[in-house]
From TrEMBL:
InterPro entries: DinB-like (IPR024775), DinB/YfiT-like (IPR034660)
Name by which UniProt lists this protein: DinB-like domain protein
SUPFAM superfamilies: DinB/YfiT-like putative metalloenzymes
Domain DinB-like stretches: 47-175
Pfam family, one: DinB_2
């Protein structure tokens, strides 16, 4: 009996452990709808946090520092902020099968056009406009449409979403370094 006790305990725990929604099936290519809804909500929450911090930095950095860049050939502060706005218009929604605005155009033409916006008030307005679009697109995505693969990147939708948030976290880090280089501490770290 003493030898069987550990086996009985493990078996009991396995039976008593509540089932979580399946995160993947068929080799990781398909999610169930509950897991997809959870992923969408977590993705949106992470992007919302990124948006709040990026806008806080953009607001805290003085307008006369928006042209600052760490070296020739590297994005300026305004260009980095507008690059993020472009990702909210295009790549973040696309990573979960939503769409860019109808008037946005192809990213190869639209993104360089956005990065030319350098005036602080226009940058802040574009950040708000792009985030409003991104959030509306993501909030409107039906979980059932998130259970497949994302063709443009030939990957699963969860991997595309995590890739996008990873990229945006890198831009947040870049913008924190830029802000500190021009004498601005991130508002949430004061």
């Amino acid at each position: 009996m003493r030898r069987l006790l550990p086996t009985i305990i493990v078996a009991g725990l396995l039976v008593a452990t509540p089932k979580r929604p399946a995160l993947a099936q068929d080799g990781g290519d398909v999610m169930d709808v509950r897991a997809a809804a959870y992923l969408r909500d977590q993705y949106l929450a992470d992007l919302d946090t990124l948006h709040a911090k990026i806008v806080a930095l953009a607001t805290a950095i003085p307008a006369d520092k928006y042209a600052w860049r760490p070296a020739p050939g590297v994005r300026s502060i305004s260009e980095a902020l507008m690059h993020v706005a472009g990702e909210w218009y295009y790549f973040a929604p696309m990573s979960v099968a939503a769409k860019a605005p109808a008037d946005f155009g192809a990213p190869r033409e639209a993104l360089p056009r956005l990065e030319k916006i350098a005036d602080k008030s226009l940058v802040l307005a574009e950040l708000d406009k792009s985030w409003t679009h991104c959030k509306a697109q993501l909030s409107g995505v039906a979980p059932a449409s998130l259970t497949g693969t994302y063709r443009p990147w030939n990957t699963t939708l969860p991997r595309a979403a995590f890739g996008m948030t990873g990229d945006l976290h890198e831009h947040l880090g870049q913008l924190i370094a830029y802000a500190r280089s021009v004498g601005v501490a991130p508002p949430w770290s004061r």
